[in-house]
Design a protein that fits this description.
This protein is an alpha/beta fold. It has eight helices and 13 strands.
């Protein structure tokens, strides 16, 4: 057997991971590039502290063949970026969801379920902290006359917003152009049409499309694991299931105001340099919200993130 093979982790389960080999191997079935791997002990040990899994989807790894159609991950290349959330069941341990990501595509819907800015604002804050890029997708535009009013605010702040419909296929080519040649994590509440959009972009995918729960109008959660979907040359989409809570892992409270571009613009006018904009005297942010210079929904999202950090203290 020769030296280790270079590969990418494309799927995880309890026992190991599926990797996609850079170079196809003649004696492997299928396209010769898929190999199920366990993870060698020393990698477990090195990365165990605070990590749920030593390898995650998107990781660049080195693998060794063990049995004919089996392998072992023997090395992990340094990550260029990670996306994480606290794992609340296990006492605030960081749960890395994906590695080596270029951008986060946060999908929402204009209706059914009704547009809510909470998750979008959370994702925007996360990407400001991690230097990833964000793309906001408002899907199901076929169901409404005009986009949600929040879209104007996002555009004014310089965030790209794509208005799409998996139903009548508007905005799909713009979305395709945004995904080309990049590694994107796609996130958003269930039922907004993530799988439907990916199926329109690549009809061979055949991802499961769920139904919107009639009583709550909140989607039922249909996908089960983070999934690496190759997308054109060098590009890929990571479909992350069930991200109810998009993580702000380990972000100190005092940094949060600076993750909101609109708040950060006016915050230098606050009386106290460490103002958290929670009713401190002479707060420029509160004045800007009152005058309408800062959109009230953005301030609400900011307050909710601060509250959530109180609940899940991460440091
Ligand atoms: N009217 C309309 N319905 C859509 C659109 N995209 C998805 N849906 C429907 O919304 C439901 C949830 O879609 P799905 O792709 O499973 O959402 P996901 O949970 O975000 O992956 C399904 O019934 C889809 O047929 C759209 O652009 N317009
Ligand atoms: Mg889905
Ligand atoms: Zn202030």
């Amino acid at each position: 057997m020769s030296g280790p093979l270079e590969a990418r982790v494309v799927r995880l389960d309890a026992k190991g991971c599926l990797v996609h080999l850079d170079e196809p191997q003649d004696d492997l079935s299928g396209d010769g590039r898929e190999l199920w791997c366990g993870v060698r002990g020393r990698i477990h040990l090195r990365d165990r502290r605070g990590q749920k899994s030593p390898v995650v989807v998107g990781d660049r790894v080195q693998v060794e063949r063990t049995l004919e159609d089996r392998g072992a991950v023997v090395g992990i290349h340094p990550r260029t970026s990670t996306l994480s959330r606290p794992d609340l069941r296990k006492g605030h341990i960081e749960h890395v969801m994906a590695a080596n990501v270029d951008q986060v595509v946060v999908v929402s819907s204009a209706n059914e379920p009704e547009f809510t800015p909470g998750l979008v604002d959370r994702v925007l804050a996360v990407i400001e902290y991690s230097d990833l890029e964000a793309v906001i997708v408002v899907n199901k535009m076929d169901l409404v006359e005009r986009p949600p009013y929040e879209v104007e605010t996002y555009r004014a702040l310089g965030y790209p917003v794509l208005l799409t419909s998996a139903e009548d296929e508007r905005g799909i080519e713009d979305l395709r152009a945004r995904l080309r040649g990049r590694v994107s994590v796609v996130t958003g509440h269930s039922g907004v049409g993530k799988s439907s959009l990916l199926n329109v972009l690549d009809p061979d995918l055949g991802l499961d499309v769920g139904r919107v729960n009639v009583t709550t109008r909140r989607g039922r959660h249909t996908t089960t694991a983070a999934l690496w979907i190759p997308f054109g040359e060098d590009g890929a989409v990571i479909d992350t299931a069930g991200i109810r809570e998009f993580g702000l892992f380990g972000i100190p409270k005092r940094d949060v105001p600076w993750l909101f571009r609109d708040l950060a613009q006016v915050a230098p006018g606050c009386h106290y340099p460490d103002c958290l904009h929670l009713h401190e005297p002479k707060c420029a942010v509160e004045e800007a919200v009152e005058s309408g210079e800062v959109a009230a929904f953005r301030y609400d999202s900011y307050l909710r993130i601060l509250e959530s950090l109180d609940e899940n203290v991460t440091r």
